[in-house]
Amino acid sequence: MPGAEEFVPSGARLPGLREAVQGCRGCGLYRDATQAVFGAGPETAKVVVIGEQPGDQEDRRGEPFIGPAGGMLDRALAEVGIRRDAVYVTNTTKHFKFERTSGKRRIHRKPSQAEVDACRPWLDAELRVVAPRLVICLGATAAQAMLGTSFRVTKERGTVLDLPDRDAHVLATIHPSAILRSEDREAMYQGFVADLRVAARALRSLDAG
């Protein structure tokens, strides 16, 4: 898999990156997706939230975290006092990977490690431009992209760590889509909020320092 590096314009800011990503052919996911879905939020954001990939609604509308999982993220961020409009949100891959059911519904499929690696230059470019103080990884795909494939969200969630090779910190938690699939949504949601409270406290501490 060739990867996205040749498609990422050197030194570009977010508008240039957002335009260029539509022409990315670094992996095969672009073939079935409606469009690339780039990150959204201010270049001055102190917090970057990274998910796995765009979902069905995001693919159709071209914006990240606007579906049910995004709504749950918004609710949880508000609950812990992190302003949603001050956060930059993105995903490890920029195209929706799916399979169609007999009823023509498009069901999410997890991107492969090769696809995550191929798309990594876009994520690196976003982090270069935004230069956050704190990165929040939602789910295993995002956490392992940032912290290595041996990282286990189930064991190390809710812990603030140094982000390798960057002057920033990172915290991993579950993806809000996991809450939506759970039989005990409220308990999972409260655990998610507890993790984000740790992130909010860490951010206040970083600001104070």
From TrEMBL:
Signal peptide: none annotated. One of its GO terms (molecular function) is metal ion binding. SUPFAM superfamilies: Uracil-DNA glycosylase-like (SSF52141). It holds the Pfam family UDG. It comes from the Bacteria. Residues 38-197 form the Uracil-DNA glycosylase-like domain. The keyword Thylakoid does not apply. This is Type-4 uracil-DNA glycosylase. The lineage of its organism: Bacteria, Bacillati, Actinomycetota, Actinomycetes, Pseudonocardiales.
